[in-house]
UniProtKB/TrEMBL annotation:
<feature type="compositionally biased region" description="Basic and acidic residues">
    <location>
        <begin position="187"/>
        <end position="201"/>
    </location>
</feature>
<dbReference type="Pfam" id="PF04012">
    <property type="entry name" value="PspA_IM30"/>
</dbReference>
<feature type="region of interest" description="Disordered">
    <location>
        <begin position="180"/>
        <end position="208"/>
    </location>
</feature>
<protein>
    <submittedName>
        <fullName>Phage shock protein A (PspA) family protein</fullName>
    </submittedName>
</protein>
<dbReference type="InterPro" id="IPR007157">
    <property type="entry name" value="PspA_VIPP1"/>
</dbReference>
<comment type="similarity">
    <text>Belongs to the PspA/Vipp/IM30 family.</text>
</comment>
Length: 223
């Protein structure tokens, strides 16, 4: 019944390396180990209770047998006092039979006492170990959660620094620069076109003035 505890102790002392190698969840595994350990303790508690009951039963039989031995001795004394020697003999023979039973029960009772004490000690040892494992389980689970969180954060930061998010920002920056360059080019083109239009318009205006001047000169000459 103690092999399970040795196996769990080995896993915990290795700090879940085996679990991590197999891609198992340490948090769930430790909870399951504690459940299994609790079941083992319950089984040992039941065994200890049965042993204590057996011890008490033997104790009662031993006390009854001892009482009967004392009773037969007193009866033999009364029989002799009454002059019933044959009856006294038979009472003493029965006393001896019960004394043999007392001796046998005494040995069984002492053995049961020793076994009960041993089982109680082992049960207490299991309970103490369970409490120690529980404390360590809570600490290991907290460490496992922290490690997972750190891993997730580091991976996220790695993606930001070297992954698609940063590349995307760089591309968008290039796009914005390209838009700004196109805007400046369009402004230059618009300015250039506007200058040409102004020159053409100016030229047209000058031609009208020249025509009007020539017409005025021609009229004066006629006069």
């Amino acid at each position: 019944m103690f092999r399970f505890f040795n196996r769990v102790r080995t896993l915990v002392s290795a700090e879940l390396n085996s679990a991590l190698d197999k891609a198992e969840d340490p948090v769930k595994m430790l909870d399951q180990y504690m459940i299994d350990m609790g079941k083992d303790i319950a089984e040992v508690e039941a065994a200890v209770a049965n042993q204590i009951a057996n011890e008490k039963m033997l104790e009662k039989k031993l006390n009854d047998a001892q009482t009967l031995v004392e009773k037969r001795e007193q009866q033999a004394i009364h029989a002799l006092e009454a002059g019933e020697e044959d009856l006294a003999r038979r009472l003493l023979e029965d006393k001896q039979n019960h004394q043999q039973q007392v001796d046998t029960l005494q040995a069984s009772y002492e053995e049961a006492q020793s076994l009960s004490e041993e089982l109680r000690g082992k049960l207490q040892e299991m309970k103490d170990e369970y409490q120690q494992m529980k404390l360590k389980k809570d600490a290991l689970q907290a460490r496992a959660v922290s490690a997972k969180t750190r891993t997730k954060v580091n991976r996220t930061l790695s993606d930001v620094n070297h992954g698609s998010a940063r590349d995307g920002f760089n591309k968008m920056e290039e796009k914005v620069l390209q838009y700004e360059a196109e805007a400046e080019t369009s402004e230059d083109m618009r300015s250039a076109n506007r200058s040409l239009d102004d020159e053409v318009k100016s030229l047209t205006s000058s031609n009208k003035v020249d025509d009007e001047l020539a017409a005025l000169k021609a009229r004066l000459n006629k006069e």
